[in-house]
Amino acid sequence: MRCSSCIGGGGDGAGIRLTPAVPSRTPCPCGQRAALRKLCVLLPAVCLCFWSLAQPLPTEASGPAELADQARLALSQNLADYLFLGTLNADLQYSVHRAWTLQAGAKYNNWTWRHRMDTQFESRQQSYYIGARWWPWYTYSGWWLGGRLQYREYNRGGLFSQETEEGDAFGIGASGGYSVHVNRWLNVDFGLGVWGGMTKYVTYACPYCGKRLDEGAKPFFLPDEARIALEFIF
Hints:
By secondary structure, the protein is α+β, with helices and mostly antiparallel strands.
């Protein structure tokens, strides 16, 4: 975008001139006193700045207690989900207390695996959840217990039988596990989870034929995830 003003315009006064004004050759006593006051204020500030730079830097968090005081944000990737038919996932946690973190995450899988035209299997989903974790020792270290609210749109079939089910599930999940502190920036997080709620579903005779067997709403209680995750701490 071009500016309509003219920089460095002519002598008609329409432009903005960049030529500095010629300073007065006669020093003003008022200006000298003002400069002296500024110098008295700036000099201690500059000295304090150099003194702080000369001090030794604080040591990095080396143990779980120090890590709990400094770490706030953690992003994790569950390798077990990737191994289960390539489910993409991300989990974000934020520390709000020495023993509590808030949690939000998502999973996505839209892949259909075919062996032949009449043989396929899938566990497609898009899942979203929010929750919290309680850490008895310190956040991002040791044992933890978690709870979450979760929504999942799913389509699964052909894994253990040809019957296929798709639907929308809403529920509450509970999980627990252990987080191993590797270094300042990395944990390995292990866990297991279950969840239950209600689902509105449709079942089909097989993953590819489209023949409906049943539909409706029903309660459920199922394993939710096995967790072997890399957790990056900031």
